[in-house]
Amino acid sequence: MDINAYLRRIGLVGTADSGEAPAPTLETLSTLVTAHVRTISFEGLDPYVGIPVADLSPRALQHKMIGRRRGGFCFEQNGLLAAVLTDLGFDVVPLAGRVVWMREPGPMPAETHKLLNVGVPGESTRYLVDVGFGGCTPPNPLRFVLDEAQSTDLEDFRVTAVDPTRNHPVDPEVAEQLAMEVRIGDDWRPMYLFTPVPRPPVDSLVGAWYASTHPSSRFVAGATAAIATATSRLNLAGAQLTEHHRDGSTVKTTLGSVAEILDVLDARFGIDVEDCPGLVERLTDSLAAG
User: Single GO molecular-function term (predicted)?
Assistant: First the structure.
C-alpha cells in the first residue's frame, strides 16, 4: 500500500510530504477516518453499469480509489482503509454486518456489509471504524462499548445488544448479536446487525459479488453516491440529490438531465465519471424509464 498516495488522496498532503508515516495513535485514526469520509465518495457506479466488484486486493483497491480517483461501497472502502491501518501498525479485525436500515421487519438479511474492529497500540479500548455505510457512515471512530451514545461531527451513534422488538431479526444460533444505531431526531434507528466474530477475506468476496451482481441489489438497480462534509451529508439516488445538514434541515434537488448528474458526481462527489464506461448510456436509459 502506498501510504503517501493515500494521504494525498484524502487531502493530508502535509503529512504525506513530511516523509514520515503517521504513528498508530487514536489521533491518527480519527484524522484518517474523518478525512477519508470527506474525500472518497461512497458509490456503486460499477455495479450500476454491470461491472462486478470481484477484486478486493489492496492493489486493486488502491488502483481504483486512489489512482483512478473513484469511490466504492463498503467492501472496497473499508478494505482500503484496513490495508492502510494495518500497514501503519494498527490491529485491524474485519467484521460483517446485516443491513436493516429502512427495512420492514422480516427474514434475516444476508451479511452484505463490512466494518472494522480496530485496536490502537497501548490502548485497551477497541474502536469500530466504518467508512462505507453511505448516507449514515460514522464520520469518526466509535468506542466499541455497549449502550453509550457517542457524539460525532454529525450524528450520535451507539452500539446495543440486538432487540427483536425493534426490527432486529435474531439468529438463534449466533451469540453476541449487536446493532449499530444512529440517532435521527429523537429516534434511535438500527443501521445494521453484527457480531464481534472476525470474518475471513473470502466472506468479503462473497458479499461484494452478491451486492454488485444480484438483480435486487440497490447498487445494480440505481446510481448511488454519498459523501460527508464538516456540516452535512450529500446523497445521490438516481436523479435525486439530497443534502442533510447537521442542524436538521434538508435540501432536495431533482436533477433534470444526464449532464447535470454527471456534473454533480464530478463537482460535489469528486468522482472521475470518465473512468466509468457505460455510465452515460445507463443514466440515459434510467431517466427515460422514469
Answer: acetyltransferase activity
